[in-house]
Amino acid sequence: VGRYSVITWLTSLGSALFSRVDRLIIGSLLGTQVLGIYAGITDITCQINVFSSLLVQPLLPSLSNLTAQQNIDVSKLQQQIKQAIQINAVAALGLGASLITLSPLVLNLVFPSEIANKYIAHFCIATVIYSLSSMNAVGFFILLSNSVTTCAVVQLISSILSLALIALAARM
Question: Which of 36, 52, 116, 138 could form a disulfide with 107 if both were Cys (CB 3.0 to 4.6 A apart)?
Fold first, then answer.
């Protein structure tokens, strides 16, 4: 239990690194005004990940049950994983498409009009990025339930790599 808890904590650390340290990087390299806009945009677009993964979570106990059985019905397992991936993809891409379509309205609710109009393209880019990255929910939860160590390593490496790319892009 202790080992599992430590590794799960490391997985959460990877998520926290990405979701908070990026703001420190943006603020230090680009200033507080850009940081405020970046934070507003990412706070909205990260909800794609939250909502799309919520739809997949109820399927995971049945997947875990199937993998724990002695005589695994591989075709049934594959079908349930395929179904979970499809639900996750439809939700992530549908939410992304909705946000892009409604981007002027959404940004005008959050920012003054002159700022909202200036950053619509940035919002759309962030929406595409979060939509595509949100399609990993099924893989993340399957990995978390079957190999928490691998999940923690992948989460930490991808978070650090993402932060390095954010710093590089901010400098450019």
Answer: 116
